[in-house]
Amino acid sequence: MTPRTDLMEEEQPVAPIRELSAREFARWTWRQLTSMRTALVLLLLLALAAVPGSLIPQENLDSVKTTNWQAAHTTLTPIYRRLGMFDVYGTPWFAAIYILLMVSLVGCIVPRLGVYWRAMRAQPPAAPRNLSRLPDSATYTTSESAAEVTARAEALLRKGRYRLRRAPAGAATGSGEVAAERGYLREAGNLLFHLSVIVVLVGFAVGSLFGYKGGVIVLVGDKYGFSNELTQYDDFSPGSLFRPSMLNWFDLHIHDFHVDWVDSGPQQGMAQGFKSQIRYEDSPTGTMKSYNLEVNHPLDIGGTEVFLIGHGYAPEVTVRDGKGNIAFSGPEVFLPENQSFLSFGVVKAQGAKPSQLGLEGLFYPSEITLNGQPVNVTGDIGDGTNAMLSLQVWKGDLGLDNGPQSVYSLDTSKMTMVAAPGGKAWNLRVGQTATLPNGLGSVTFDGITRWNKLQISQTPFKHVALSGVVLALIGLLGSLFVRPRRVWVRARETADGTLVEVAVLDRSGADEDAAVATDLVARLQGRAEEEPS
Amino acid sequence: MSTHTWALLSNRAVATAAVIYFLALLSHLVEWASLLGQRSVSADERALVNAGDVADVPLEAPAGVPAAEEARIERTALFSRLGYLLTCLAAIVHLGAVVCRGIAAGRVPWGNMYEFTLAGTCIVALAYVLLYARLKLAWMAPIVVAFVLVVLMVGVLVLYTPVESLSEALHSYWLVIHVISAALATGAFTLGGIASGIYLAKRRWPDAERGWMSRVPSLATLDRVAYRIHAFGFPLWTFAVLITGPIWAHQAWGSYWNWDPKEVWAFITWVVYAGYLHARATAGWKGRNAAILALVGLATLWFNFIGINYFSTTSEHSYAGLPAHGAVVVQRAGV
């Protein structure tokens, strides 16, 4: 992963063809793996391998979309499944690339740490015999003595934060030389960057192996709430080394919830800002605490973070069966279909007799009738007078004995619709009751409760990963913008005066050597002109 | 003035800027055409061109040049200056459009794709106008102007959205930090990519003595300019994508890295540019291969900005569609 060092490796003589011993083979493999070309190929391979995950729906990102995609592509699905295309970032082949990259990185960095350590302690190299052979050099003649020139050069270079070679060689009278080097931090930045990448990878790995992310919809009100137990989550995606015992205890409920609605302009009726007043306990014996939960302002409970990511309405519905018994009662979560919170939901009255009842339909937070069609104006229910529940009622077998099904869909394959007089749907305002025909029972729209979608997650080592990236950035800046440079000045007294040679070698290829050399000469001479000789 | 008026003003300014950019482009095309009629460049001129001092090419006719040739050189110079002045004017009007849009929305004007395009092209145009003299970018003129014009038009025609308040997740000061750094990096990578692209073209016709290619600086200069611009953009991109992005994602969505398609492609872009800088540092990959890699990086960058939206609708970066809670997908087993 590093410049220059292994150019030599690549130029190794080709050995005569013979069987490699296991040890030689291992050595050869290690060499190949830690060579820069391999690192580069692995890096680009990582980019390439990340592509399919962004184009094919991913199970852990959007399971519904993935299921739909799989249903639509029956030929590709088994092949993709075998390749792990529905969970690209968790597949062994993806892991193989970044683990190899990491090994390659370590193999590159560790030896270079030693090299750097020695370079730090070593002195700048002595001047080459023939300075004028270097691509960027300059000469001039002066009447000053060699000692004067070198003393001035030393002072100038020291001021320019160069490290000088101690006791310059060939300190015979009549000649002198200065060797200086600067920009040691470039390699330090380089090493810091690569080490930090490892820190980031470790932090990220720990976070995704031991962390979890879960979502839950919690109804607003003191009588509803959430305890941090596995069974309470609606969806839960743990890291592969996560154990349920890692969940820390807390208990919360949403005391109050407030939404700001946009009341003018093209976005009228959409929610602008929302905030929840949370009451929570972080230990069974602790006291109740309060927190204002908002988007972008998560609540941290002992390392577990709670985020507010959405909200909606849960109409309170009571379903009575033919005998007048309550078969279902309470708020049922409806999911918003658009920005003005027209919401869809399902109520399943499993215990209704003589036959099970299922309701599905739309909730209009604020409905007006336009040309005989119900239209939702805004997501704001105001005092609730314009809120409307528009339901299709089905009777028959809900199909709940055939295994689990989503609470947001109704399987009507074994049901028949109970049509409302004059139309298909039963439209109810708050407080209204629809009496179903043929003694099936009745449906009452009692009121409206709100809900919040909370995301709860634990990401251990996230600060390690973040510090790693910040350090990597600092290292990167060093490795990109620090210019390592070597400067040599040699003065030799001749019959025509003192001949001064200046040479500059920039190791970053920034092409500024000539300018630096000219500048140094000018300053060496400029000072000379000021002083009366 | 009301929100509506400011928004209208912004739209007018965009249209005006587009017309001026178009005129600037025409002017530069006349300049090009005029260069095509050029006879073999004199030795003096060529020496200057090779030194990279493009802006300083003597635009006054050297002595002993026929009158027709003199007129042609004058025409080239005139349209070159005119094009630059028009570009300056357009960039100022463009900046005005961005500011009006911000006033109309009552926030930073990069809350959706249209606004990001508007602001991003403005950054490219301003960077070009301001660096024109210092980095001697005259040779870049027609390409930069054409690029800004085309992207701006795509923004207006395809991405336009009326002024709207932001979805809740975007209400954060990270919007300022994250998006500015991403936009600056995008602008830098685009300019760097243009330099790399021209490098490849120049490599194909290294000794062009006629036409626009003759004004392009030497290969070594192009390579160095491209590297410098990329080296400036890369830390910014790192900051935007790997520091502010995850911090904000963590605050808003509850997880600092979601493998969301936009994140994945931002990462891919990062890796490709890391590869570019790396390959360049390893000495062997200067020049052609590095330039190709830079163009691949630019392709991933712009694909991420526009293309990915056509492949994936689940991205949490899709501002124009449903609000975050519209995508609430819950699978509760049983009842």
- The rounded Rg of chain B comes to 22 Å
E-strand count of chain B: 0
In angstroms, what separates the terminal alpha carbons of chain B?
A: 54 Å
Q: Using the alpha-carbon principal axes, give the shape of chain A.
A: elongated
Provide the helix percentage of chain A.
25-40%
Q: Biggest interface, which chains?
A: A-B, 81 and 68 residues
| Structural class designation of chain B | mainly alpha
Average predicted confidence as pLDDT of chain B: 78
In terms of quaternary structure, the protein is heterodimer
Q: Give the number of helices of chain A.
A: 10
Question: What does the model show?
Answer:
The complex is a heterodimer of chains A (533) and B (335). Chain A is an alpha+beta fold and 533 residues long. In chain A, 31% of the residues lie in helices and 32% in strands. The two termini of chain A are 54 Å apart. By secondary structure, chain B is mostly helical. In chain B, 67% of the residues lie in helices and 0% in strands. Chain B has 9 helices and no strands. The longest helix of chain B has 39 residues, at 67-105. Residues 40-61 and 318-335 of chain B have low confidence and may be disordered. Chains A and B meet through helix 3, helix 4, strand 4, strand 8 and strand 11 of A and helix 7 and helix 8 of B.
